[in-house]
Amino acid sequence: MYQKSKFPEPPTDDKRWHSVQVVMRKHGRSPHALIESLHAVQDAFGYLDRDALTYVARSLDVPLSKAYGVATFYQYFTLKPPGQHKCVVCTGTACYIKGMTELLDALKEKYGVNVEQTTEDGTLTLQSACCIGTCGLAPIATVDGEDLGKVSKEELLAKLEEVLHGHS
Question: Count of CB atoms within 10 A of residue 22's CB?
């Protein structure tokens, strides 16, 4: 297998690109490493912009259209910068039955944000997950990685107020 001797120059001199290069090198800079490499970029920077997609595509010798296609196909990837804080609401069957729609309605009413959107001020991104895997805690949401099981809309809004504004 042909090994490329040098990576193309990263889009910026940000040191986080090194961790992305490590992932690509680990997989032999093969086109088959596209998903893993995009995960590394998203983990490092929080989203995939055009410069990142171009860099990964060039590094793995795949067309930019393929990198973009993968990034837009999988729900995990986002092409927009996330807000300072992230709320994920589980939309699985158990959570749906236990009131997940009330959580989403409350978030839309309070913050004017729908799923896969960020508030205008950039403080909160709302995402959904098909299943978080803790159906016994339905409905469940996470705020900045903290699980809130059997959460009511009032509890979720109070937690977000605490995180966003330092009070409940």
Answer: 11
- 27: exposed, middle or buried (Cβ count in 10 Å: 0-12, 13-18, 19+): middle
- What is the per-residue pLDDT across 101-113, written as a single tens digit (0 to 9) for each? 999 999 999 999 9
Those residues whose C-beta lies under 8 Å from the C-beta of residue 11, and which sit 6 or more positions away, are 17, 51, 52, 54, 55
Whole-model pTM: value is: 0.71
Alpha-helix residue ranges (DSSP H) falling in 89-152: 93-97, 100-111
Distance of CA 62 to the CA centre of its chain: 23
Q: Residue 3 pLDDT more than 60?
A: no
Tell me which long-range contacts 148-152 makes (C-beta under 8 A, separation of at least 24).
Answer: 150/98, 151/103, 152/99
Amino acid identity, position 9? E
Structure tokens at 12: 């910026």
Residue 75: what pLDDT?
A: 76
pLDDT of residue 12: 94
Residue 156: what are its φ and ψ, rounded to 5°? -65, -45
